[in-house]
């Protein structure tokens, strides 16, 4: 069904649970499809900030419990996924081993060149896992003197990443922010085998449902399960990794809002700031703000604000209320 731009905007916000309808962490991740993980946390890690934008104040320990205790969520390839998607993810993991793309062929080359390192890593994990990568780095067998121009001297970390994307090792916990690694066969349960074709079809359907609308030659095509009712008038801030704005061209077409993350732009060339968050009010992106949270003092300061910021204090109040109790988690 083709809908107007106004309805498309409402549907997109509703599909992403930014209308206040989110109820808990697990259901939110299931409906969004995944959470992206990134180490940059000027305000909060993006996987936490995305949840806060939808749930408001929530206990970040709940996410860890779902990942490492209940195992209803899983971490793979720098994303958090619903555990029921494991059969689909395993199809992607198997594909990574075929060398179908340039990056996969590069990974095959690395595995061939460092076959002894691969054996060493798997042997150590089998014997002593789960282990953080820094423990593996302490062994002389994993060290090399030369520095490769593509991956530098990060051999163990790169090896673990490659083996993770191929479903050989898994992230089975975190300690102090560091990942704990173990053999995937000891962490992933037995599940049905799904073909890559069927897996990609399933992911495409999930993606359409999570985004709500997609732009076609005819206009905005809406997912039939999402209504275009008016969005409640709530104010929140969006992570730069939020799926509502992750596709910058789509976000500009939907909201008439041009956005880019200027973290990697030289300071003198930035139009706004280092880590600027869009301000969502109802179904419109009305401005942008650059908050920074000091975990040592618990202070949330605003480095800059642009556009319509008349209601930014509403978002800041909620952010402060949430960040305080979670400052050191």
Commentary on this structure:
40% of the residues lie in helices and 19% in strands. By secondary structure, the chain is an alpha+beta fold. The strands form 4 sheets. Strands 10-11-12-13 form a 4-stranded antiparallel sheet, with helices on one face. Strand 6 (169-175) and strand 7 form a beta hairpin. Helix 5 (86-96) crosses helix 11 (196-211) and helix 6 packs across helix 7. It is globular. It starts with a strand and ends in a 6-residue tail after the last helix. The model has no long low-confidence stretch (mean pLDDT 92).
Write the layout of secondary structure elements.
Layout: E1 2-3, H1 5-15, H2 25-32, E2 35-36, H3 46-55, H4 60-69, E3 73-76, E4 79-82, H5 86-96, H6 102-113, H7 115-128, E5 131-132, H8 133-137, H9 155-165, E6 169-175, E7 178-183, H10 184-187, H11 196-211, E8 213-216, E9 219-222, E10 235-237, H12 248-255, E11 277-281, E12 284-294, E13 299-307, H13 312-323
Antiparallel strand pairs: 1-9, 2-4, 3-4, 5-7, 6-7, 8-9, 10-11, 11-12, 12-13
Helix pairs in contact: 5-11, 6-7
Percent of residues in β-strands: 15-25%
The radius of gyration over CA amounts to 21 Å
Poorly predicted regions are none
**H/E series, N to C?**
EHHEHHEEHHHEHHEEHHEEEHEEEH
Strand order of the largest sheet: 10-11-12-13
Distance between the termini: 44 Å
Can you give the mean pLDDT?
92
In short:
Helix content is 40%, strand content 19%. It has 329 residues and is an alpha+beta fold. A four-stranded antiparallel β-sheet has the order 10-11-12-13, with helices on one face. A three-stranded antiparallel β-sheet has the order 1-9-8. The protein has a three-stranded antiparallel β-sheet with strand order 2-4-3.
